[in-house]
Every structure is written in C-alpha cells, then in structure tokens.
Amino acid sequence: MLLPKRAQPNNSMPETPRQFLVPQNLTVATTGASGSLFLRHFLLMLEADVRVRTVNFVASDSALRVLAEELNLRGRNNLVGQVLGKTPSHRIQLQSNDDIGANVASGSYPADAMVVLPCSMGTLARIANGLASHLIERAADVCLKEKRPLLLCVRETPLNKIHIRNLYRAADAGATIFPLIPAYYYHPASLDDLAREYACRVLAHLGLPQADAFRWKG
Fold this sequence. Notes:
By secondary structure, this protein is α/β, with parallel strands linked by helices. The protein has 7 helices and 6 strands; from the N terminus they run βαβααββααβαβα. Strands 3-2-1-4-5-6 form a 6-stranded parallel β-sheet, with helices on both faces.
C-alpha cells in the first residue's frame, strides 16, 4: 500500500498584504486647484524620505497656471526643481499629462499609491466618472481597478450638489477623500507650518509617518 507523501514544510514567508506595505513607488499629481504650498512641502518630504524610491510626478496644464501664480514658477523647465525650491534628486520623475502611455498608465507598473494634491473639482469629476483621456485620470483609474490607495486632496468651497455626488462616487469606487483642510490646534506659526503638518498627515495615512509630525497627547 502506498503511503501518502509527507507534507513538506513551507519555509517561505507569508505574503504581506498591500495595505501593510510601506509604499516605495508613489504617483503624485497636481491639478488646477489652489494650494501649491501644500504640494511643495509634500514633495519635499518625499524627496527627503529614504523609504521612498520613486515618485512619478504629473502636473496638469491648469496646475502649471496655479503654480505660476502661487509659487512664482516660470515655465516648464526644471519644473520639479522650481516646485521644490532646490535642485532635486533623481527620485522625483516628471511625467507629461499628455503621455497616456507613460509607466503609471498601466496596471502592470508597480505603483504602490497615488496622491492628487491639490485635486480640482474637474479632476475629481473625471476620476469619479471614469473619464481617463489624460495621464492623471488614467493613473487614478488604474489605482481604483487595481485596488491601490488613491488619495484625493480636494480643495473647493462651497460645494454644489454635483461636487458632493462626485465625492461620493469616487469614495464608493475606492478612493480616499482627503480634503485640503489644515489643522490649527497645534498653533502653527506660519503657512509653511500648516502645509508641513498637512503633508505629514497625508504621509502617515499612506504608511509613511514622519518623526517630526505633531501628535495630540490629550
């Protein structure tokens, strides 16, 4: 009689669920809503975080107009360096919003998460309704279909019913609505303090907590 083969021990480590992984490959998009200072501090923190290997950065045409108004940017040359206010490393890679064939447009590309900061109501509407004619919306659509974190840092007031419906649609599809609303209870001394702390909150939500972030102790 043949005896059943003895089960071999499985020495491989169990796969870690995606939601518990520290994101190393991020997509960051900026659109035509006000709040460029928040984007600057968010990118500065990603630039300094050794846990992050790659940031694919996409700016819409409307975002370029807002960046020019709020950060005094001039043209598209050295866009990342202009936003950061310093010479960037190779960690942040600029992608064209017109390049619908860029790496982040495919689900096979291993992006860990995406943040749209700030996210305009127009961009929200296109993401919420699956209209992906440009790279920002396509990359967001990929995150939703692949069940990857997508944070929409929306900034608009007041909100009309169309905005509210689109916020619901995006959240229902799997996005996290992360309004661009700074905190005040830690007594920020400047606009830069407000922007830095908001960036810390977004990064903590992604699994990249910052050591110098304010933490309420009661």
